[in-house]
Amino acid sequence: MVYVKWFFILAFWAVVLGFLHYTLPQHDIVRITDTYETRVDYGENSLFWASESSGMATEVPGRDVFFIQSRLTNGRPMIYRNEDTGWGWPPYFKFDSANLQADAADLRSTQDDPRWVVVRHYGWRNEFMSIYPNAVDVRLAEGPGERIIPWFNIVILTLLAAFVWGVWVRWRRFRRRRVDPVLEEMGDSVADFSDGVSRRGARLRRWWKNEPG
């Protein structure tokens, strides 16, 4: 039972950490190589695409999506989708995907004359499932080695840790005052019942041995 308990605890926190890693903003320093728009028809990976843009039809199974092609500072390719989040989740309230596409196109550069750009995004890149992170903002970087401190993530994670700590402390106090006494009383009742059954069984065995044949 101990292993089962820890399995569920670890699985729960793995889901929580995965959710936070997907949702919270991340920053990449890249060189934008191209921008384009293409038709996307969703399949099993539809969960990882944003909802329809504000004011667009919702009946169609797919739509045109902006994409931003880039190269990371280590030379590896990174492709971002550029979709509005609207009023949905995650709550970035992004309505300017067309403007962002224009800014990204204006920041394109070549390998011989690179212009390094900071792309703020959320989500994951997975080639097997065709999942792309969603770009939220682009700006010129100070250089390929610019240091970015994720203050927003630090604040959110600190508040979340404080909330979890407060809930845990209050639960322990509630358990000590309310739950543990009830469990102890139930345990005592079960023990008394077991002792009574044992005594009755012992008397029954003695009676059976003394019963004349």
From TrEMBL:
<protein>
    <submittedName>
        <fullName>DUF1523 domain-containing protein</fullName>
    </submittedName>
</protein>
<feature type="transmembrane region" description="Helical">
    <location>
        <begin position="148"/>
        <end position="168"/>
    </location>
</feature>
<keyword id="KW-0472">Membrane</keyword>
<dbReference type="InterPro" id="IPR011088">
    <property type="entry name" value="Phage_phiNM3_A0EWY4"/>
</dbReference>
<keyword id="KW-0812">Transmembrane</keyword>
<keyword id="KW-1133">Transmembrane helix</keyword>
<dbReference type="Pfam" id="PF07509">
    <property type="entry name" value="DUF1523"/>
</dbReference>
